[in-house]
Amino acid sequence: MSMSIQGKSAIVTGAARGVGLAIARHLTERGAQVMFADSDEAALNSVVSDYEDDQSQVRRFAGNMSEKLAMANLLSATLDAFDRVDILVNAHRFVKDSDPLDTDMDTLEEMLRQNLMASLRLSQMVAKRMIKQAEGEGPASQTGAIVNISTLAARRPIPSMLGYSIACAAQEQATRGLALALAPHRIRVNGVSFSSVMSHELQCALKEDPDKRAQIIAGTPLGRIAPADELAETVHYLVSDGARFVTGQIMTVDGGRSLADSVTAQIL
Question: What dihedral do alpha carbons 155, 161, 163, 169 form, nearest 10°?
Answer without folding.
Answer: -10
